[in-house]
Structure formats: structure tokens, C-alpha cells
Amino acid sequence: MSSPAIPQPAxxxxxxxxxxxxxxxxxxxxxxxxxxxxxxxxxxxxLTLLGESGSGKTTLLRLxxxxxQPTAGEIWMIGERLDTLPxxxxxxxxxxxxxxxxxxxxxxxxxxxxxxxxxxxxNEIPGRVDDALNVVKMAEFGAARPSRLSGGQQQRVxxxxxxVNRPQLLLLDEPLSALDANLRKQMxxxxxxxxxxxxxxxxxxxxxxxxxxxLSDRIALLRDGALEQVASPxxxxxxxxxxxxxxxxxxxxxxHGEIRRSIATCGVLRWPLDETDGxxxxxxxxxxxxxxxxxxxxxxxxxFRGTIRQQIYGGSSELLEVDCGAGQLLRxxxxxxxxxxxxxxFVFSITDAIRVAD
Amino acid sequence: xxxxAYKTIVSAPPLLWVCLFLLLPYALMFAHSFWAVQDGVxxxxxxxxxxxxxxxxxxxxxxxxxxxxIAASVMLCSLFLGYPLAYYLSFHSGPRKELLYQxxxxxxxxxxLVRGYAWKTxxxxxxxxxxxxxxxxxxHEPVSFLLYSPFAVxxxxxxxxxxxxxxxxxxxxxxxxxxxxxxxxxxxxxxxxTFFRVILPLSMPGLLAGATFAFVLSLGDFLxxxxxxxxSGTMIANIVQTLFGATYDWPLGAAISVCILLITLxxxxxxxxxxxxxxxx
Lengths: 358, 281
Known about the structure:
The complex is a heterodimer of chains A (about 350) and B (about 280).
Chain A: E1 19-28, E2 31-41, E3 46-50, H1 57-65, E4 72-77, E5 80-81, E6 92-95, H2 107-117, H3 125-135, H4 151-163, E7 169-173, H5 181-198, E8 201-206, H6 209-215, E9 218-223, E10 226-231, H7 233-238, H8 243-248, E11 253-260, E12 263-266, E13 269-272, E14 278-284, E15 290-291, E16 301-313, E17 317-323, E18 329-335, E19 343-349, E20 354-355
Parallel strand pairs in A: 3-8, 3-9, 6-7, 7-8
Antiparallel strand pairs in A: 1-2, 1-4, 4-5, 9-10, 11-12, 11-14, 12-13, 14-20, 15-19, 16-17, 16-19, 17-18
Chain B: H1 4-32, E1 36-38, E2 41-43, H2 49-56, H3 58-92, H4 97-105, H5 112-123, H6 128-135, H7 150-174, H8 178-186, H9 191-202, H10 204-219, H11 223-229, H12 236-244, H13 250-277
Antiparallel strand pairs in B: 1-2
Helix pairs in contact in B: 1-13, 2-13, 3-7, 3-10, 5-11, 7-10, 7-11, 8-9, 10-13, 12-13
């Protein structure tokens, strides 16, 4: 992206959260859409609200923007109670899912809208609009009506329209979901670069876990209106707290089993584990399992023999479905290795079997 | 692809309808306006005497201007009633929307005549309104300007045409995507500012359609002035009616009708232009 055209928001204490949701709940009639959400967003952070449709992620965004009122709890932004203010008094701007550009205004008028209604000095407006349009590379479309623009271009205008107001927090409601796959990937990297460059805090909503992984500093995973886990992409992938998280973020094998006398048993798989006895659930990522051509294993590894039931070629990798006896199926991801059939020995490291809550 | 025969069969009825009930009557009306009446008999002698009469006799111009004044008043009054009503229903009525919508529509099912007579009963010197005014001692004798005046005509027509104004405005308000309203507030616009910058411009096509309805329908109305207008509330359609009925001067009546038709067509063309200017799809 071009030079930093939009100054950073007023600096705040780096340790203080920019936005704080305190035990926020939202109910529509008898339906509990959000339950007891407590979440902090740090200044300059790129935080993603990830979840299936109906998980409440968009509702949380709308509570912060001011389009809905929380049923319980409070929202604070740098020492100011936010949830009691009407939307037009919040220093928060939104990029809407279908962009919501004003059809009766051209691109420049759309972008300058916020400045005009808030009574920004008249001589300042054209310059700031130019800057914002430059940042999103839409400078030459100033006179166009939104209906003449492609989805990607409308997306950029919507971004410029929000950024020109120098919000302290930018809310993005599935902004890329209407774009086709290639454009989407391109906009992802542009969005990430833009956020780094202008340093505005982004709160991004998506149902696409890959997108969340690619963009975010932290991911807040929502499930049925409650926070399932909040962590960095690497952390949440490597150490999912629950079976839901492990399955939602990437692919995994869930191993149901039990621990007895310091031995973990999951079907045909057994390994030593010094924990208290009881039922147990592990997440084992497919790529942590590898072939053992010589049939040997290290001391910290678990070895098993399995029959290849299915092989799905994925370009750089292969996804195998392996039957390791007694009907226990495991998914194994290997670097591309050509067709495989029959029985093979596999190993995985004990530490890669992550214990998760059910 | 449809066969030629099929296309002909399907398009024949509407074409026939348009020719028989629209083009032919218009042509006849147009022809009549250039004919004359001699000794109470229509003669097909082409002349411009009817139009000359219209231009020279000030009575016609006076009634025509009064008619347009009344039509404009009805248009403004029904806009001021219909727009807020449509706005409230579309944006703020919540779960009662459907019910309220039906309540606005219900009067359209009641006969025009019944509503006319109702106003007669309300406004007359022995009427409900005068009775009330005397009962609360605002007046001591019946107020006469209420009935048989342009005021009564405007009141009755406004009552009748407000639903016609309401409907297109309501439809255009319903078509405004709600995220646009949220986007406006999100960008810092107060509700009032959002109304004037987003909602009003985007509902312009409906507003223009409603205004046209009210004006054009009022322009040609002859029952309201007949029922509650009196002599001071006579409108141009009453004159046409008299010319065609009592006076048997069809050519002059046709000439007036041609004038009204031209005014109406000009107006329709104008609003169509404006509506195009205000649509953004």
C-alpha cells in the first residue's frame, strides 16, 4: 500500500485495553445470542471474532457499533462507557458486509460523508478524501457511482469511507465474504498490510478460519454465544483448549480414551502419560503423524500399523485415511509422496497428542 | 421462441383494449374539440372557436386556476400527512406494522360517495363539527365556511387521496436497505441528519409518484366539489360535466378536456424525468 496517509489515533497507554467488554450478554426474546462475554482489545491489535453462523459474532460487533443494546454487561473504550452512547457518538467505524455504500452519492461523496456530517473544516475535506482514496487505490474512481463499481472496488470504497474518519477502532463485518476466492486472498493481504501501516485497531468478523489465521494477531472463537477460546493463531492451532476448537480450526483426529495407571489408551493406540486416571480426549493433527519406513520409533513416539483406505491428493500434500485396526480411522497428512497402498507403519510424538476438553 | 401466431393471439386483447377504450375515445374527444354546435345539433365543421372561447372568457381560466390551486393544496396536505405516516410505519412501528398498514388501506374499500357524504355530515351547519364547536363554546352559531367551500373540497380530497400518496412512499421507504441507515449513523450522522441525507433522497421516487397521484387525481375530480364544494368550490371537471350533460355543448367540453389532458401529460412527463433523476439502481 502507499505511504501512511492516515495518521494514527491519539496515543494511549500501551497496557490499557482500547476496548473492554465486561460480562456482555444479549438476548433476543427468549433466545440468548451472547452469554457473559468478557473480552479486551489492545490498541493496534488485529482481533478476529471467529465462529459459525449464529454464534453471535456479528451481534457482538453490532453491540460495539451501537446498533444493538446489550441486555447485560458494559462496553468501555479508553475510560469511556460506550454502550450508553448512540452509534453516531462513538469513535468507531464499521465496514459493512455488503458495503452499504450510499447509492445516491458518488465515491467521493460517500467517502466524505462522515467528515461532512460531523462538520469537519471544509478546506480539510478534499485532502483527507484524496488521502483515503489513495490508501485504497481508488483515487481515479472519485466521480463514479457505487453501482458502477465491482465488488472489490466497492469494498475498497467502504474501507476508505470508514478510515477517513480516523476511528480508534474499525469494525469489519465479514467484509470479504462477497468476493470471489482470488480477489479475497488479495484483499486479505492488502488489509493486513494496511492495518500494520495505519496502526488502527481492527475488530474483524469472519466464519472462515483460514482467513482468521492469516490476518489476526489474536482470534476469539465464539460458540453458541460464548467465548470458546481467545489466543493467537499459532497458539489456538497448536494448543486448542477444547475438542470444538480443535475441529473448527484446521483438521484434527479426536481420540477418545482413558488413562489408567499412567498409561493412555485410545483404541489400539497406547502411550505412557503421567496423569490422573479417567476418561480423556486428545486432538492429534493429521500432519503430526508421519510414515516410519524402517518400522522404528524414538522413545517419545507412538508407533502403529495401519491400512490405507483412501488417499486424497492435495498438490503439496497428501491426506490419507488410515485404518489402524478395530475400525479406528485416523487422518494423516504427508508431504506429496505418490500413490500409497496396503499396510504401513506410522509414528507420532506423544507431545503432539494435545489433551482437550470435551 | 414463441411462434408468430402465439404472439399475435396473446397481444391482441390488450391491443384491442387500448385501441377501443383509450385511443379511440381520445381521438373522438380531440375531433369534437374542433367541431361546433348549431341550433343544438352537433355539426362537423372544423374550427378553433372552442379554444378561442376558452382563452377569451375569463371564467374558464379562473376555474382552471382554482382547480390547480385545490389540486396543489391536496397534494401538499396529503404529502404532509402521508409521508410521516409512511416513515413511521416503515421505520418505527415494530411488530404493529402489518396491522397499521391494513388500517391505512381499509378506507380505500369504502365507497367514495359514502366518504363524501360523511364529510357533508361532519362539516354542515347542523353537522358534527359545528355541534362540537358550539358545545365547547368556541363558537356561538354555526360556522358556514366549513361546508360548500374550496376548503371543504381540499379537506375531503386530502382524506381520500392520502392513502394513494402513502402507498408509493411506503413502498420506496421499505426498499431502502437498512444497513444504509446504520452506515449513516455509524459515520456520525444524527437521526435527523440521516433522514435528510439518506432516507429522503432515496424515497424521492415514491414521494414524486405519490405527489403525482394526488395532484392528477384531484385535478380531474368532480364529485368532491359537487358534494361539498358549493359554487365557490366548483372545479374544472364540473364545468366539463355541465357542458356535456346540461348544456349539450360537447365541442367546448372536449376542448376543456384536451387542455386538462395536456396539463396532465406534461406533469407526468416531468415527474417521470424527475423520478429517473432520483433512481440509482
